[in-house]
Amino acid sequence: MARRRYKKKSRRSKAKSIPVAVMAPIAMMAVNPMKYAISGDVGKAFLELRKNVMGVEWDGSFNPGALVGTYTPIITGVVVHKLANKFGINSYVRRMTGGYLSL
User: Fold this and answer.
1) Which residue in 75, 69, 66 sits closest to 22, CA to CA?
2) Does residue 49 lie within any of the structural domains?
3) pLDDT-based confidence at residue 51 (cuts at 50, 70, 90)
4) Average per-residue pLDDT for the chain
5) How confident is the model at residue 38 (pLDDT cuts 50, 70, 90)?
6) Fewer CB near the terminus (10 Å): N or C of the chain?
7) Is the dihedral of CA 27, 22, 69, 54 positive or negative?
8) Is 60 left (phi over 0), alpha (psi -120 to 50) or beta?
9) In a domain, 6, yes or no
10) Is the model more confident about 17 or about 33?
11) Which domain holds residue 32?
């Protein structure tokens, strides 16, 4: 009886790709706080980041419009990423970028 030959498993972990459709809105959320931090006003940077992430204005009032403006692009990016995986676009983009980027 012939011996079966098995393919050796690779010990390397699968390369992680950066989903651009998800990371771009998160980076846009941090633009204004970074401007304040670079100018040296760290307190205003944290207040602006709090407004973007939690929807709390500088005076302490809650603003749901800030949450919609922040999280709508992120949720849209997650949906685009999932659809790109489903239709095979991400595999094409990964091949073109060497495995580092995906939609």
Assistant:
1) 75
2) yes
3) very high
4) 86
5) very high
6) N
7) negative
8) left
9) no
10) 33
11) 18-102
User: In angstroms, rounded to a whole number, what is the distance separating the alpha carbons of residues 18 and 26?
Assistant: 12
Q: Are 24 and 101 in contact (CB under 8 A)?
A: no
E-state strands within 28-98 = none
Q: Is residue 9 part of a domain?
A: no
Contact 66, 51 (CB under 8 A): yes
pLDDT value for 50: 93
Q: Is the pLDDT of residue 46 over 90?
A: yes
- Name the DSSP letter for residue 59: T
Query: How many CB atoms are located within 10 Å of the residue 16 CB?
Result: 9
Q: How many domains does the chain have?
A: 1
Task: Answer for the pair 19, 89: CB distance below 8 angstroms, yes or no.
Answer: no
pLDDT at res. 32:
92
Average pLDDT estimate for 4-18: 69
H or E element that contains 57? none
